[in-house]
Each structure stands twice: as C-alpha cells, then as structure tokens.
Design brief:
The complex is a heterodimer of chains A (about 260) and B (about 300). Helices cover about 80% and strands about 0% of the residues of chain A. Chain A has about 260 residues and is mainly alpha-helical. In chain A, helix 3 packs antiparallel against helix 6, helix 3 runs antiparallel to helix 8 and helix 7 packs antiparallel against helix 9. Chain B is α/β, with parallel strands linked by helices. Helices cover about 35% and strands about 30% of the residues of chain B. In chain B, strand 9 and strand 10 form a beta hairpin. In chain B, helix 5 runs parallel beside helix 6. The longest helix of chain B is centred in the middle third of the chain and has 14 residues. Chain B is elongated. The chains are: A mainly alpha (about 260), B alpha/beta (about 300). At the A-B interface, helix 1 and helix 5 of A face helix 2, strand 6 and helix 3 of B.
Chain lengths: ~260, ~300
C-alpha cells in the first residue's frame, strides 16, 4: 500500500513539474548553457578581436581548446544555472504550504514521509535527466568544434557536477520543507549555495567534505587521482536533508 | 443517537497568545446529520475543524472521532474523514476527472475503480460536462462542488466543511447548499459557517461558539423553541375588528402589543403563558374576525445575536 501511494505521489510530482513547465524549464536552461559553453569558448577569440578593433585595442587570446569549453561549461552550470534552478524550485514544498494544497494531501491517508520522499525522488529524476542531456550536449558540441575528446572523461566530470547539483537542489527542497514562505526558502537556499561555494577555503579537511566535490571535476580534467570522499560525504549530506525534511514535515501544522 | 464526534474540555493556545483560541470546548455531534458549527469571525471555528481533522495539535482535552482518539499520523483515522477547507486550493493543473481519480487512488482504489468513482462523483456534483477541463478554469461554485466531491470520494464517515459557501455568489451558494443537502444521511456533515441563513436552511443540529467557548448546542428545532419569545402575529379583516381588538387587549398583563402595522399586530406574551387558547377565545367571544394568527419562531440569526452579543 505504502509503495503504491509513493509511486502515485511521485507520478503526480513528475506530471506537475512537466505540466507547470518548471521541470522542463530546469532541463532546458541547463541544456541551453551546456550548448552555449562550447560555442562561446570557440568564438571567444573572434568576439574579443571584433570588440578590440572597435576600441582600437589589440587583445590576443590563445587558440581555445576543449578544456576552455569544459571549464566554461562547469562555470555556467555551477553559477548562473544553479541560481536559476534555486528560483525555479524554491517553492517546491513551501508553495504547497502557502496555497493549501499540502492540507489537501495531509487530510487524506497519505504518510507525510512518503510525500517528502516523492519530492526528493522527483528532484533527483530531473537533476539526473538534466545531467545526462548536459553530458551529451557538451560532449557533442565540444567534439564538433574542438575535435576528438574522451567521452569517459566527460562522463566522469559530469558525475561530479551531478553530485554538486544534487546537493544544491536537495538543499532547496530541504529549505522549502522548512519554511512556509517561498521567499524565505529561496533566500536560505541561496545563502547555503554561497556558503557552499565559499566554504572550500575555510577548512583544511575540505577534501573530505561535500564542498570538495567540484575540485574532483577539475582533477578529472587534469587526469589526476580521484578522491571519492567528497562524494561519500555529499551523499551523507543529501540523506541528512531528506531525514530532516521528514522530521520537520511531521511536526508541521496547518495554521 | 450515537455521537460520532466528541470533544471534552478541548483547549488550544496559539504560540505567544495568552488567551486560548479554544477554552474547554465540549462538543457532541450525532451521527448522520448535518451539523452546523456557528460562530462569529475569530470564534475558533477553523481552529476546531483543523484539530478535528488532525491538521493541528491541541494543548489539552480529549477528542474522540468514531470511537478513536485522533492523531495526525493515523492513516486509518484519515480514511474516515473528508475535508474541504475555507477557499481550499486543489491541484489546479489537473482536470476535474484527474483530480478525483488521483484522490480515489490515494484511498486505495484500483485504476478502474478510481475512474468509475471519479465519474460517479463528477455526475453527483453536476460537473460531468467539465470533467476534462483544468480545475483552474472552474468557477467558484464549481470548485467548491469539486472540493466536496473529492472530500466524499473515499466514502468518509464524516465530511468536514469549513465555510463552504462564504466565497460564493448567490447562485454558487445555492448550488453548493443543494449539493450538501443531497448527501445528508450518507455521512455526517460537520459544517463551519458564519452565514446563518445557510445553517438554518440545511442543518439538523447546531452548535454556537464565541471566543473559543461553547455557548449553545442543540437540534435546530429545540434551539428555536428554547429561544422562542412567545411572539405572535395577528391580522384582522376590517377596521371595526381592529378597534375592538385594541380596546380588548389594552390592559392585559399577559401580553403586550409591540408592533402595529396597518391591520396586523405583533404581540409578545409573557413566559408563563403556555398556550393561546384563552386569548383566542376572548377574541372569538367578542365577535372579532381573525384574518391570520401565526406564532413567530425566532430565526437562527435572532438566537445567534442574542447569544453572541454581550
């Protein structure tokens, strides 16, 4: 019975994300920036050249390589795309509290734990689909514009970006389960994102923490030895978000 | 009659508030009736309904529904109830049919059963024609009827409705009241409202609360007779009868004319007058021809105002 309800709720979440176009927008925006990254890296010298000519300056940029394309891609996904994703999903649960649709579900025979699990599963599915599309898009365009690159390297790199996005998006769902206001949820998620982005330099042991996960993406690009501790600690953090959300949603009362 | 809801000394304080939202509230709701839970705004109606549906915790007291102490985590308890909140939001990106199918599946129905139930309740609520339209395109009255339909789809023993007509225009209000009236005897309807005319029209029992305290609970007929003021209205055929009547009743200590409107009079009798036989015999013996004689019942509004006004 529980498993049926869980899949029913999950189906509802996926349909809602598609029909309200939030999930589609998330995937489309990330795919767009995945496509733009190799293109902008490829044409950057020419763009700079045309700008410098109009300003009577001479800017000489080295010939771009596939590494520039990938670094541009990492930067776009972890900065502007993450910011947009927070805005899209900041009301994922808090909007349901605000509007009253949460009450609609919670007076019915629905376990609150299953509701939370369905939310986290839905976000995992959309992040994963997006990661697969991004991997293919960035690989194909980089290959087309810069020549042969190792697909396995791109897969490994995107695995760490996927872990990073999972942490950020799970934090968004967590704060959304904690607060009633979408704005407070969004601000808290953004605060977490800033802290997460800056925290790497604060701890001497950051190589073991989730904050070190993007460093491993750079390690992949340098063909270095991968450290999986940040991945492991990231999953601990992700599970903690889920457990805490379940705890808080079980305490929640309709006002 | 079996009591399906019973609250004893139910008390609720909101955080930071010294005054209780509910103050030792005692409530008993008979099974299979339409129960009106009345009170002015801020009286504690919504707080009570949220506690009864397990959506809100309470500080002290006992709440027993269908023989069980309520708990917000008891799935079995939630199978017994249906709920429509005040201006309840539903998943408006779904169609009416999808919403009811989804709700039926939550209650454990198979896909086929859910489809059949959804179609049945769309028909009962008069929404079959709008089944494939998105809920966000529905009018206020349609949304409320759909809201009641989704609350009924699990065959609840108790249907909780919080101000189901307050946001509706007169046509929508009539549609919703007719719908609620049509489901009487199928389950117990617990309806919060401050629209007294609605309660008077469909409720069998009423309870009135003010400032978190119960001030009256009774059947609609008992409440009216309890608060009847021995008020009658009498009318005469011609002026001669009117002048005869006036001279007859001038000095009586049993009754008093309180209003005179052309040929009709409103007369209030003393509480010790149990019937009007002596009074009517007096008029008949005097040869006065009566056009009509009506005992005026107090309206629910009269009772409500009397009880809630300090």
């Amino acid at each position: 019975m529980d498993i049926k309800i869980y899949f029913l709720l999950l189906q509802k979440e996926i349909r809602e994300l598609i029909l309200t176009q939030k999930g589609i927008a998330f995937i489309a925006i990330l795919a767009f920036f995945s496509a733009v990254s190799p293109i902008s890296a490829f044409f950057m010298p020419e763009i700079m050249k045309s700008i410098s000519e109009t300003q009577n300056l001479q800017i000489i940029l080295p010939e771009p390589t596939w590494l520039d394309s990938i670094q541009q891609y990492i930067k776009n996904i972890t900065q502007i795309c993450t910011f947009i994703a927070i805005i899209i999903f900041m009301g994922f649960i808090s909007k349901e509290k605000e509007s009253g649709t949460l009450v609609f579900l919670f007076v019915k025979p629905v376990k609150r734990d299953l509701y939370i699990l369905s939310k986290y599963t839905a976000i995992t599915i959309f992040v994963s689909i997006s990661a697969i599309i991004n991997t293919v898009v960035v690989y194909l365009l980089t290959y087309y514009l810069f020549g042969k690159i190792n697909f396995i390297t791109i897969i490994k790199l995107n695995f760490f970006i996927w872990v990073y996005l999972m942490i950020i998006m799970h934090s968004v769902v967590f704060f959304s389960s904690l607060f009633k206001s979408q704005i407070i949820s969004g601000v808290s998620s953004f605060g977490f994102y800033l802290l997460f982005s800056l925290a790497g330099g604060f701890f001497s042991f950051s190589e073991y923490l989730p904050v070190g996960v993007l460093d491993q993406a750079s390690v992949v690009l340098q063909n270095g030895s991968i450290n999986f501790w940040p991945v492991l600690s990231s999953f601990v953090l992700i599970i903690s978000f889920v457990v805490l959300s379940i705890f808080f949603i079980n305490k929640w009362e309709a006002k | 009659m079996r009591k399906i809801i019973s609250c004893q000394n139910l008390t609720k304080y909101y955080k930071g508030e010294k005054k209780p939202a509910l103050d030792n509230l005692n409530l008993e709701v008979p099974e299979n009736c339409i129960f009106g839970f009345l009170g002015p705004n801020g009286a504690g109606k919504t707080t009570t309904i949220k506690i009864l549906t397990g959506l809100m915790n309470y500080n002290s007291g006992d709440v027993i529904i269908d023989g069980e102490i309520i708990s917000k985590h008891k799935i079995e308890f939630r199978k017994k109830i249906g709920y429509l909140g005040q201006e309840q939001k539903m998943f408006d990106w779904m169609t009416g049919l999808e919403l009811l199918k989804f709700t039926a599946r939550i209650f454990g129905q198979s896909k086929v059963e859910a489809k059949n139930s959804a179609e049945k309740y769309l028909e009962i609520s008069g929404l079959s024609a709008a089944a494939s339209k998105k809920v966000k395109t529905y009018s206020g009255g349609m949304k409320q009827r759909l809201g009641i339909a989704q609350a009924l789809i699990g065959n609840p023993k108790i249907l909780f409705l919080d101000e189901p007509t307050s946001a509706l225009d007169p046509i929508g209000r009539k549609e919703v009241l007719d719908f609620i009236y049509s489901i009487r005897n199928k389950c117990t309807v617990f309806m919060c409202t401050h629209i007294l005319a609605d309660a008077e029209r469909i409720c069998d029992y009423v309870s009135i609360i003010n400032e978190g305290k119960l001030i009256e609970q009774n059947s609609m007929s008992n409440i009216k007779s309890k608060y009847s003021s021995n008020l009658v209205e009498i009318s005469f055929l011609n002026d001669e009868d009117i002048s005869k009547f006036k001279s007859l009743v001038q000095n009586s200590s049993d009754y008093k004319i309180i209003e005179n409107n052309d040929s009709s009079f409103k007369i209030i009798f003393n509480k010790n007058v149990t019937d009007y036989n002596d009074f009517l015999n007096l008029l008949i013996n005097a040869g006065i021809k009566i056009k009509f004689f009506i005992e005026k019942e107090p309206t629910l509004e009269d009772v409500f105002v009397k009880l809630t006004t300090k």
